[in-house]
Every structure is written in C-alpha cells, then in structure tokens.
Design goal:
The structure is a single chain. With about 350 residues, the chain is of the alpha/beta class. Strands 10-9-8-11-13-12 form a 6-stranded mixed β-sheet. Helix 4 crosses helix 5. The longest helix has 14 residues. The chain is globular. The chain starts with about 35 loop residues before the first strand and ends in a 9-residue tail after the last helix. About 35% of the residues are buried.
Length: about 350
C-alpha cells in the first residue's frame, strides 16, 4: 500500500473517478436569496398554482423541502420560470412561517392531520337554517378548530325564509361570534353577498360548510369572474348535496366599484360531512376566552375545566365572567366526545 510523505501535492493523491458522471453530493444547500415571493392559490396532484405579482405560476415542491407540504394560503419562495406561460414549471424552495393554520382530521380517532388552509384571518362557517337542517355540533367543531388555529369565526346563516335564526343565535350569543343572516331571495339579488362582503374586506377568509348550504353559491357571488359549479341537487332523505368543490381554492375578493386590486381573499373549501378534532389540545381552547382564562390559575393540574374542583365555577360566580360563557366553553371542550350528528 502506498504511503504519502509530509510534502505531498495534488499529483500524488489518487482519486476514484465518478462513474455516474454527475457532481458529488453535498450537504450545503443554496439559500435562494433571489427567489420571488408567491402565495399558493390551489394544489392539484402535486402541482401548485401560485400568485407571483400579478401572474399565476405553476410550480412543484423542491426536493430539499422533504415531506413538508405547502397548502392553500401559504407564502412561499419560488425560483425558476416565473413567466406563467403555458407548460412552464417553477420550484417552491421555501415555505414561510405561518400566522395561522386551519386543520382537521377525518375523524376523532384518525391521527392523520390535514391542513386545510394557512394564513387565514377568519373562518366563515356557512350553515342553512333549513333544507338541510342545521348541525350545531358541526358548528361547535368548526369553532374549536378556528380558536385552536388562530382564526376569528364568522357565522353565515342561510335560508332564513324557511326557518328563523333565533335558536342558533341564542346558542352562540354568549360566544360573541359575529353573524350574517340571509334569505334565498337575497342570494338571487346579490344582497347576501354585499352583506357578507362587509366582513371580508382586507382579510383572508376560509369558507367551510357541509354540502347544500349555499357556500359555493355565495363564493360565486363574491368572486363573479371565477364562477364555480354550484350544488345541483340536495337529497330529500339525507339532506346532503353533491360535493361541488373538490379542492381548496383561494380567490380574490371583488373590490367595490370594479377596482382591479383585490379587496381581500376568499378560500373556498370542499364541503365537509365531518370535522375531526384529534389534533386539538383542549388546553389551547381556553385562550379564545380571555374573560375566563385568568380564572384557571386556581384550577388543579391538568384540569379539564369540567370537573368539581374547577376554579372557573367560582370565577363566574364571583361576577368576573358571564356563566353562559363558561357553559359555552364547556360545550366546545366536550365536542371531541360527541359526534356531529348527536
């Protein structure tokens, strides 16, 4: 075996040739400091449509991101062909830190977490007052997901000409959730969209709701230039409609007066039949109740806030918070033990 002395040079070192002819691997990754900023509008089978300045650019996730996935609403760094021309493909090399995340699981027993939308400010929960019948447990679950993910909830109650909203409004009145009540006629003449738009300007709002409640119809009215096929039929037996939205899609909110700039963003999501909360830590839900949170300082360790030693009972009894708010908190915390149809 050849041994090298103290004063070897390059010619003395024998190197093994690279048979594949490609460059050797390195752990040093490019920083992509010249990458463009973009926003993910929709995801379809590994292809992500992103808004870069005023262009829609199709991109794929770079290998260096590993298993980290980008979702609708993500702010991303993109390199490559950013022209937006047909048959071009860019690369997403970085996903920026998220300000909020709306997540759900298929069921409470399913540990696989699905991120629905990122960086949304608001969650609009659309429910019909009749045809199909409202599902308060599903509303509760959406509220828990909103509070847990850092989104502010908004109730949109449709078809009030078929049934009054009083019962639902009384149920959620203690939570202080803003709401809009609309009729079927207001959907036709555009008044419903105008009233909802007042709550959306300057914000990114994700719309959720089960099929047949008018969610996609409302989105179509808010974004007229991007019409989506609406629900064609609601089953008279099950009260369920066909799913007309198969993937989440971010759309620019139409600005009043026909201005070109978007007044906000609307994210249409697929109709849901269940909203699992396996990923939610109940201890985080209390953060959405600032009037009750100080009262938890006297609670025993790992308190579920629904047991005899819970300090929140005394906190509410002493007048620091409305007892109805405590009841609402406990109803939301118990949603993981109840199914939506219960």
């Amino acid at each position: 075996m050849r041994r090298y002395g103290k004063h070897t040079d390059e010619d003395d070192i024998r190197s093994r040739p690279n048979r594949k002819g490609n460059r050797p691997r390195t752990s040093i990754r490019p920083k992509h400091e010249d990458a463009a900023e973009g926003m993910v509008l929709t995801v379809d089978r590994g292809r992500l449509t992103c808004l870069v300045e005023d262009r829609a650019v199709v991109a794929m996730k770079a290998r260096e991101l590993g298993r980290k996935a980008a979702v609708v609403g993500d702010r991303v760094a993109i390199v490559g062909d950013l022209s937006g021309a047909k048959d071009t493909l860019a690369r997403i090399v970085r996903i920026e830190q998220r300000s909020s995340v709306l997540r759900r699981t298929a069921d409470d027993d399913d540990p696989f977490e699905r991120v629905v939308v990122a960086n949304a400010d608001q969650l609009a929960i659309v429910t019909a007052l009749a045809d199909p019948e409202p599902r308060p447990r599903l509303i509760d679950r959406c509220l828990v997901a909103a509070y847990d993910g850092g989104l502010e909830p908004l109730l949109v109650l449709t078809k009030s000409d078929l049934a009054g909203p009083e019962a639902l409004l009384e149920m959620y009145g203690a939570l202080g959730v803003p709401y809009v009540v609309t009729t079927r006629e207001e959907f036709v003449d555009g008044l419903a969209a105008d009233r909802v738009r007042e709550h959306l300007v300057g914000r990114t709002t994700a719309f959720v709701g089960h099929s047949g409640v008018g969610k996609t119809t409302l989105v179509n009215a808010l974004v007229p230039e991007d019409r989506r096929r609406t629900t064609g039929h609601v089953n008279a037996v099950t009260g369920r409609g066909r799913h007309t939205t198969t993937s989440a899609l971010a759309l620019p909110l139409a600005a009043p007066g026909g201005a070109r700039e978007a007044a906000g963003w609307v994210v249409d999501t697929p109709g849901v039949r269940s909203f699992g909360l396996h990923h939610v830590d109940p201890s985080r839900v209390i953060h959405a109740f600032p009037d009750l949170e100080p009262g938890t300082e006297g609670c025993p360790r790992a308190c579920s806030h629904d047991e005899p030693d819970c300090a929140l009972d005394a906190w509410a009894a002493e007048g620091h918070a409305d007892p109805a708010r405590l009841q609402s908190l406990r109803r939301l915390l118990s949603t993981r033990e109840r199914r939506e149809g219960d």
